[in-house]
Amino acid sequence: MRSPKQCGCTISMEDLPEALLGEIIKRLPTTSDLNSISLVSKRLYTIEAELWDTIYVGCGVSPATMALASLCSRFQNLCKVEFNYSGWTTNHGMQLDNQGLHMFSSCCPLLTDLTLSFCSYIDDSGLGFLACFKKLISLRFKALPKITSAGLLSVAVGCKSLSALRLMSCKNVGSVEWLEYLGKNGLLEELVVQNCKKIDQFNLLTFGSGWMKLQKFEFQHWYLPNTFMFGGPSYMAGNQSRYDFCCDFLKDLTLARTTTEKEIGLCCLLRKCKALENLALYYALGVHDNDMITLAQNNRNLKRISLMLTPQHCDGYVYRTSLTDDCLKALALCCPRLQSFELTFYGCEPEYPEIGFTQKGLVMLIQSCPIRELTLSGVDIFNDKGMKALACAQFLESLKLVSCIAITDAGMHHLACSPSLINLALELCNGLTDRGVAKVVRARKLESLTIEKCSRISLKAVQGAAKTVHYTDDCPGYEEWMERCVYGPKVYDLHAF
């Protein structure tokens, strides 16, 4: 076949089919490349503008209203837009305000996904303009200090197609008329509430029939509870109608820093889910074996479980984590699809019986289920004998050990026989040395190896040990250490923006 040059003809960018040009533009990785190619010809400029459906607006775009008008004029097919003013100061110029949001709502008719983060000048009147986005499906509000429940009610009433709502650090959102309205409307499939001081778990029970369609739910309170705290106008222990709802389609559930007791509170969700695939309980005090056993027996779809536990009063004066091997046994027997398991203990001293689990229970779970990803953090009960059993796990591909002080080089040597291990991460494991890691590296063809803050493992020992190697020997700073003491490990920024 002869080339165009041999045929005596030339092909320019203008001669290429529009579909091919569009595919070329889609494959360009950076904004600078897109800007450069759009300067080549008017046709490329037009096609590039038509294909651009997502933009991010930060502190550097000022004045925001004028810049936004220009962006919307050029990119008329925008579907997903994020405004993020994190780190904003007055030197950055004006943020997006109510007037800018009003203008934006009139010139971006195809918008389906909107994120507003750290927008200090948007209040309830600004939220009222969101009803103009007729196709809006997903909303994220993060750190909007001026919005209240009244503004959210206008969103609930005006945004007829809304199916995902995420509220994060909105400190003045309280009363729940908006939540009741969304529940009756029954369209939400995703609801996330993080660190909103005036919204408690009993408010969320007013969602009512809305639970029936919900597929993802996350609630994270703004502090780490250390006692059972009940009361207030929304708390009615005898009102069972608050718990008379179904959540048969819930697939993803996260409860972080909540307090429940005796079938009161959001722990009731664990006994109602029949389609749950992903479960995360981060310091959810008051969740007991019966809750987890009921979940396991009613649900065979579980694929991922993440547990972060701290001691609490259980069975009178006993001070330990509330979950025991009974719950692990139920999971091992009833969850044939469980592929990912994460376990973190915080505030548990190795010399005291504060952990309800035993190494035998953990090994039973790991060997009974097709675990592919395993994370153990602060699990002092897991030692070299446990590592020997772990090495026999047929499906285990990824292992992360954090601050597991009972594991030594002898335990690491067992991993050399692991049949499927390709990803290994070690953090704050000061019982391990170069010798332990070297044995695994020589025996396994690792895809990735991560070593963080392990004082006895050197950079020389891990260089070239896997296709991807990450190494740091930095120790936690004082501020990070204090934050862990007060709030627990940095695990609360879930599904971060």
TrEMBL record:
<dbReference type="Pfam" id="PF25372">
    <property type="entry name" value="DUF7885"/>
</dbReference>
<dbReference type="InterPro" id="IPR057207">
    <property type="entry name" value="FBXL15_LRR"/>
</dbReference>
<dbReference type="InterPro" id="IPR006553">
    <property type="entry name" value="Leu-rich_rpt_Cys-con_subtyp"/>
</dbReference>
<protein>
    <recommendedName>
        <fullName>F-box domain-containing protein</fullName>
    </recommendedName>
</protein>
<dbReference type="InterPro" id="IPR032675">
    <property type="entry name" value="LRR_dom_sf"/>
</dbReference>
<dbReference type="Pfam" id="PF00646">
    <property type="entry name" value="F-box"/>
</dbReference>
<feature type="domain" description="F-box">
    <location>
        <begin position="10"/>
        <end position="55"/>
    </location>
</feature>
<dbReference type="InterPro" id="IPR001810">
    <property type="entry name" value="F-box_dom"/>
</dbReference>
